[in-house]
Hints:
This protein folds into two domains: 2-157, no CATH class; 166-359, no CATH class. The protein is 45% helix and 14% strand. The protein has 16 helices and nine strands. The strands form two sheets. A seven-stranded mixed sheet has the order 4-5-1-2-7-3-6. A hairpin with a 2-residue loop joins strand 1 and strand 2. Helix 5 packs antiparallel against helix 6 (165-176), helix 9 (220-230) runs parallel beside helix 13 and helix 11 (243-260) crosses helix 14 (301-309). The radius of gyration is 26 Å and the shape is elongated. The mean pLDDT is 89.
Amino acid sequence: MLKIPVIHGTVLGVNVYRGFAPLGDLSRISKPDVYDAISNPKGTQRDLSPKHAKEAYEYVRNSEFGYWPELFLCARDPKVMKFRGAKKTKGFGILEINDQLASKSKKIIISRVDGNHRLYYGDGSVEGFSPIEKLVSFCIADNIDLIKELVIFRDINNNQKAMNTSHLDKIDARLAGQESIRTRAPALYLAERLANDSESALFKIVYEGGKRPAGAFIPLRGLKTGIEYMFSRPTKLNALNDIEAQYKIIRNYFAALLKYEPDAWAYPQKFLLLRGAGLWGACFIGAEVIDRTLGQGKYKTEDMLKVLKSGRKWDWSTGGSFKGLSGRGGAVRIRDLVVGEFADDAGVSVRTLFQKIMSDS
């Protein structure tokens, strides 16, 4: 049983205990709950960087003088700890932690909300890394559910520049729920739909934070930004004014893009189409392709593919037609080059198109 002197209080509605303990003990009693879209969709943590964790270990082991912000833990099982307050001084006392229960349970009894990299090698369980007995400051919360733990994780890390933005977007979406983000963050809603729809050309290739699945190379944040660019100027896609209809159209466009340049899916590292400025350029182009297709009274994949093929054949490889272009400016340049070569046709009303799209099974 670990017995640690602590200060007990409430911070912004969260019941917490603050104190000092050996890093090795805190590492031993806690576990990370790493988010994995397939095996652990309710997880909270981003994927571990072994390099970052090793650097943190070396820092605390070798520094005679240094400082870390406090580690933040969450006791998910109320049975794991008990606070015994001092009789004469309110808010001070001894926190008793059942370290055997916490360390040996297969479940996460005490989760690492903030500080996983600092804690990872601290207990000496990995060969070549001896346990760290130096005292560090910590804060541990109790009586909060997983949603509140996610809120705390997001709010702590949202102010840290190094946090993976796709991971934060995914947490935002999980906290808000699908119905909320449809109206509050439509681009994020559409990006998530594209990532998780088995009929989407982007299914299983979008990285949503946490542990990176094999084959996932498009960051959720990058895709969300690209979709925002699709809607950045008035088009018939905007005029549809129904997110489900818009989703069908955008999904059809990416299906057309897959048929247009299949090698970009097969060998993503060798092509720019789905990476950085190439992806954003493809989204800018998508707004134009969709506008022209809808203007012809059409909206299906083959209709969009026809527009894409109406221009010249571009080399989307890393050393090809768009080499050296980067950022939003590079994406706009890609759009201007590609769209400038498209053929043109005449169009029909958005109302008629909307009825056709929504009646299509």
